[in-house]
Amino acid sequence: MADMDPELEAFVPLLPRPEFADPAASRQKYHQLATAAAAPDTTGLEIEDRMVPADPDVAVRIYRPHQAQGAIIWMHGGGWVMGDLETEHPWAARIANESGAVVISVGYRLAPENPFPAALDDAYAVLTWVAEHAAELGVDPDRIAVGGHSAGGGLAAGMALRARDERGPRIRFQLLNQPGLDDRQETWSARNFTDTPWMTRDSVAAAWRHYLGATPATPYAAPARATDLSGLPPVYLASAEFCPNRDENITYALRLLQAGVPVELHQWAGTFHGSQALQTAEVSQRQIAELGAVLRRAVAT
């Protein structure tokens, strides 16, 4: 693909395509791909699995660096259909190491078996639990962020909208990496990226169908549908050049700015959706390092 980072381009022929028509098979392939990533350094982390009381209870994995104060509720990617605490382990650990913040990785329910609002309800229950148990968790209640990659970034943005509207827990910051924000798929990138690596227009559309089920999209499911973005927490938003989500990401960032929300937007040239997982590429290393540095600046210091 023209102008793709050459280190990333070398991997493109080796990448599978997510087959959303068969969620079980997709999950198996995603698990194999994600867990093949190089193991993170966890020597400086205290890692604990917990169950958050809810209906049903929600599994979380907590990564606690030494002397951490701030925290982030972190949602994995996978098109709301794939992913779990194990597939997210390499990235949650790296973010904790890079940022010095406590990372609470959320094992939310997956579609299509559990369509919207199941995943959002799970994530919001974890946010509420962390805010209420901050002292027990060793977290400053005024330094709680939300974030995620892809579908997880969309969940984080939906959580921020819901917390604002319901006057729920105070969120310090949003860390959104290539988030899924708009089910309408009307932007230039959504319409034209039909053969991009990993995620294409068709796979994104299939993910949205599984996630929404028979429920009409609301701003909590598709935050780009929100008409009022004022009063939201500051945002770091990263987009990938060859990603169907690219233009909805940039448009959302501009709308946040126009609503008076502080925004840092980084459009990563030469990258594609999820390419930061290819950690042998220099640009991918910079992407993960930047996520950690931004989070450190926002909540950990």
TrEMBL record:
PANTHER family: AB HYDROLASE SUPERFAMILY PROTEIN C4A8.06C (PTHR48081), ALPHA_BETA HYDROLASE FOLD-3 DOMAIN-CONTAINING PROTEIN-RELATED (PTHR48081:SF8)
Secreted recorded as keyword: no
Pfam families in alphabetical order: Abhydrolase_3
InterPro entries: AB_hydrolase_3, AB_hydrolase_fold, GDXG_lipolytic_enzyme
Domain Alpha/beta hydrolase fold-3: 72-275
GO molecular function, a single term: hydrolase activity
Claim: Ligase is one of the keywords in the record: no
Top-level taxon in the UniProt lineage: Bacteria
Record keywords, A-Z: Hydrolase
Protein name: Acetyl esterase/lipase
Gene3D superfamilies noted in UniProt: alpha/beta hydrolase (3.40.50.1820)
